[in-house]
Amino acid sequence: MDIQKIKTYIIVTDYVEPNTGKDVSDAIQKVIDENPNRTIYFPDGIYIFSEPIVISADPTKSVSLRLSNLAVFKPLNWTDPNLPLIRVGVSENGESDAPLNDAYIKGSESVSIIGGCIFGVGTASGISVEGGVGTYIYNVAIKTTPIGIHIKKGPNALGATYVNVDNVNITGNDRRDCIGVLVEGTYNTFSNMRIASINFGVKCTETGSK
C-alpha cells in the first residue's frame, strides 16, 4: 500500500526532516495542531524532542500517530524523568481535556498510537494518558524509560480511562524507581506485553471515590 495515496494521512517528512539531530518539537506540534482528526504518519528516521508532543483528546482536535517500524522518538536535554515524550488528552494550556461523558463512551478510540520506538535514553518517560477516554496503544517499543506508560485517573467517580494497550514492549532504565506501566485510571486492557529491566512491572494505585 502506498502511504502517500491515503488522503487521511499527513506525512510528517513533508514538513520536518528527521535524522538531523535537531529539535523538531515545535514543528511536529504545529503539524498536529493544524491537522485535527487526521492520522500523522512518521516515516523511518530519528525525531528529536526537547519537550513532549501534546495530543488533545477532544474529538474535534484529536489526532492519531502512526510510526513506521524504524521511526524513533528521542529526547534532547530532558530534565524531568516523569515527563513523557507523548502526552495524550492534554489541551493547549497543559490541562487534561475531553472529560468522560456518554458521547465519548459511545464513540471509538479518541487517540491511537501505533508502531515505532519511543527511546527515552534513561531520561524521558514514554507515554502518559492524562485525559479523554479510549486511547489505543499498539505495537510500540518503549525503551530505557523511567516510566513506560502512565495512565492517570479518569475524570469521573470511577476514574475510568478505557485505555487499550496491546503488543507493547517496554524496557526500563534499570533504576530502582523504574516502572513499566503506572496505572491510576480504571477499566483498562493490557495484552501481549513484554516488560523488562524495571523494578515495578505494573504498578496500580488507588483510584475512584472512597
What does this 3D model show about the protein?
The radius of gyration is 16 Å and the shape is globular. It is mainly beta and 210 residues long. The chain contains two helices and 19 strands. Strands 1-2-5-8-11-14-17 form a seven-stranded parallel sheet, with no helix packed on it. Strands 3-6-9-12-15-18 form a six-stranded parallel sheet, with no helix packed on it. Strands 4-7-10-13-16-19 form a six-stranded parallel sheet. Helices cover 7% and strands 36% of the residues.
Q: Spell the H/E element sequence.
A: EHEEEEEEHEEEEEEEEEEEE
Q: Helical element count?
A: 2
Largest β-sheet summary: 7 strands, parallel
Low-pLDDT stretches are 1-6, 100-108
- Percent in helix: under 10%
**Got a strand count?**
19
SSE-based structural type: mainly beta
> Order of strands across the widest beta sheet?
1-2-5-8-11-14-17
Task: Kindly list the characteristics that best describe this protein.
210 residues, six-stranded parallel beta sheet, mainly beta, disordered N terminus, seven-stranded parallel beta sheet
